[in-house]
Amino acid sequence: MTTPDKDALGEALRNDLLALADSKLVLANWYTTCVHNGRSLPDFAALLGMATATFGHTRALYLYLVNLGCDYDGLERRAQPAAFCSMNLLDRPPEDWEDFIATVYLAELAMWTFASGFLGHPDRPLAGLIRKIGEESYFHLKYCQGWQSIFTETGNRRYGAALAARLPAALAWFRAQEDDLLQAAGQRDLPLSTLCQSYRAEVLNSLGGASAGDGPPASLDGWDPQRRRAGTMPQRLFEIIRLKDPGAVLR
Amino acid sequence: MESRQAVSHKERPAAPVGGAADHEIALQVRVKSGYKLESETEMTARYRDVLVQTMLIAADLELSTITMYYTPLLMAPTLETKMAVASAMQDELGHAQVMYRMLEDFGYNTNQLIFERDPTEFRTFYLTQHEIKDYIQCVVYMLLGDRAGYTTTRDLEEACSFGPYARSLRKVNFEEKFHVAHGERWTRFYWNHSAETRQRVQEAIDFVFPNAVMWFGTPDHMKKRVDQLTYKIRGQSNDELRQRWLAEVVPFCESVGIRVPAHFEPALGRYVLDYQVPILLDEETGKWSDTPCTWEAQFAQWKKGGPTKVSGFQRLQEDHWGADLW
Amino acid sequence: MKPKHIGRAELGGPATKFYEVFARATSEDVLAHVGSIEAPNDDLAQVRAWYVYDQLPWKEMCVVPTEAFISVTERGARGKIREM
Ligand SMILES: [Fe+2]
Ligand SMILES: [Fe+2]
């Protein structure tokens, strides 16, 4: 076994955390963009609360990335969609409430599963940050579970279909390089492939085994392992997530 | 939770002997002396009606913030400011929840009120019927508008003779205090930040101030219905609340250097406006007229309502998905 | 348009339920009633309570179905739980 060099490790960690942070940024925008579609008054408050928390995760991860040589303002105000590393799963807008819950569930669970790999990270501040993210994600996942129960009780087939259609893109996000450098170096608790398997099992389990499977894997065309995505973020999505009004920046 | 007081009240003779007028007067005297009602069974029909109408408007006003603060949420310049706006909106929707929940005890259904009521039947004030354009205008709205709301809800918490409502406002006011403080902090920041942001602050103040003045309604001498005060649903009159608001915002703005059209008049011992009400807003230009209009014209503008008066509530009853989103 | 009778649509059953919310911020505080929330199931009740009644960073929070309350002082009446 060769010892991975320090630069390569640093870059691998930076890439993974940025992919997580950017995906959270897009997810937070899903919550804000869909808030009016909430099904009840307390849903409005819950969606805004989850948006606040998720923007907070992005911000905390960007701040952590400063330790790894990134510039915070530079990260926040990236001006090109190609510079973002968000998961493909969140590219396409939700088609209805069922698709919204299915996608949010897949995204929240994928991000938490992925992040949980750093719970034992040797840098304690990072491990602590991940633990905090987990405490908040617990409520986001519970929210999805609450809705899942309703879909299950009412025999809502649309939900299962939406979940199955979105799952391949979610699984693709876990794709690892030939070998998982971070895991080999003791920075990730479990190999990504293991995390991906447990993710898939949990998702299928949430469907009560009713699913026929998760469809064909997402295409590898244009896959960029550094950014954990294929292709560039859609321009219209970029218009939503990019920060505006530079004249009012607080510094 | 229910106290022994409620029990002993129940054990008293059910109702005073006499006609409806005696009932009303007896209740007015009781609440004036500080008595707090705990349940609907203690209310006269008139008291109940005034209370319910007050709570309905307050609930609709809280709900209207989901529209008001939405554009600033999209326009916020940093992640930190996005979080601040989202979190304030979350609070406001929580306030709406508290208030509509209270109305459930009076036979209303929250889902019906929000999702099935004709959007033209929601009742809000002209101040909340405009889209806030960006984050700088947003913090000025928090400074003046949330402060106006906070003035009203503090009075309700301090004075309202319906105990459950007064108590429920503790949470509301606890959070409003933070919105106002956030508005003050960032208004001051942008005032001192650059010539450009200073100008944006002043423009926002010029737009919001006259509207926030009228949040408190017509001057006392014009007010025909005073049931809210008679039954101590509220403690202070329109003009008293307006004074309380002016006494808080004018010194703050003066300390920062912001120009506001009001000042303290030592000879009168109170704050006075530097213009004569009522004035009309030109919704095209966003400018207030320099000359007063008639009250009829003012009422007509309020009746017609601002641009988001109906559309905001309508949006909550619709579903927008797919290509409508991005 | 959203589905009509949205409160029922979210449940797909007869009705949503009310839950009473209790919380304390520190271990010195008593567990106090902080509000009430409507939800179609226990999971959503917990999440909605968490986001609506978030005025303090609670150390402990729980929800109880309103129907479980029995009033001791108001004999014969259903418990009347309201905001503290
Ligand atoms: Fe509020
Ligand atoms: Fe507020």
Q: Any descriptors?
A:
heterotrimer; A: 251 residues; mainly alpha; Ferritin; two-stranded antiparallel sheet; 2 strands; B: 326 residues; 13 helices; disordered N terminus; binds fe (ii) ion
Task: Walk me through the structure.
- The complex is a heterotrimer of chains A (251), B (326) and C (84).
- With 251 residues, chain A is mainly α.
- Chain A is 60% helix and 2% strand.
- In chain A, strand 1 and strand 2 form a beta hairpin.
- The termini of chain A are far apart.
- In chain A, 47% of the residues are buried.
- By secondary structure, chain B is mainly alpha-helical.
- Chain B is 61% helix and 4% strand.
- Chain B has 13 helices and four strands.
- Chain B is globular.
- The N terminus of chain B is likely disordered.
- Helix content of chain C is 18%, strand content 26%.
- In chain C, strands 2-1-3 form a three-stranded antiparallel β-sheet, with helices on one face.
- The chains are: A mainly alpha (251), B mainly alpha (326), C alpha+beta (84).
- The structure holds fe (ii) ion (2 copies).
- The site of one fe (ii) ion has 6 residues of chain B, from helix 5 and helix 8.
- One fe (ii) ion binds next to helix 5 and helix 8 of chain B.
